[in-house]
Predict the 3D structure of the following.
Amino acid sequence: MKKILAITLCLLLVAGLAACASSAKQAETPVLSMATEGTFQPYEYYDGDKLIGIDVAIAEAIAEKLGMTLEVTDIAFDSIIPGVQTGKYDIGMAGMTVTDERLEEVSFSSSYATGVQVVIVKDGGPITSVDDLFADGANTVVGTQTGTTGFLYATWDIEDEGLGTVKSFAKTTDAVEALKNGQVDCVILDNEPAKALVAANEGLSILDAEYAVEDYAIAVAKDNTELLGKINGALDELIADGTVQSILDKYIHE
């Protein structure tokens, strides 16, 4: 009986040590925390309750290269850079364009995609071309998402020039609803999410001419140079082996 008890205790001890070792191994896996804003299809959006898209897939591939586990948090777009600055998140990815203003706050990785800003309008409305936004006497109400380059461009090019006003919204979907309801005359945003929104909302279309062309990159805190170097190394490999292009091809259908 004592022998059986001793064997049982030994087995329990071994099992306990194995469980501890497994837990320790899991605990040792570093986490790459990413902040994004989940209404920017095809870069980040929800499939049911799961956040997917170009940025999520690329971040997952980078994390795998670095031996890390990706953890994604969906927050307001204009909270992403402050969150990265303070170290609450390691990186920010949300179809984020590199601008001089943002470079004063964070560092950016190499570019992984090119974005195009476009203008959404109501079919049959008074705005039929991008040039209409800059015509003499124009007084356009432009809808944008808060903190985006679309907001910046509209402010600089239109509001500051006395050609209209800019209304900013928490999400691109809110801006499009405002367009449908007549609260704004047009919406400026990135081409790919614009295509998805137009496809989902009858009576809207995208003007033919591009508003602006931009490079998308990953935001990293200025003092986190080690992480930035690792991300660029992984990203360069993923671009070279075709992984990034395959992700873009999967989510962007011309």
Residues 145 and 169 are 5 Å apart (CA to CA). The two ends are 74 Å apart (CA to CA). Residues 2-28 form the longest helix (27 residues). The mean pLDDT is 90.
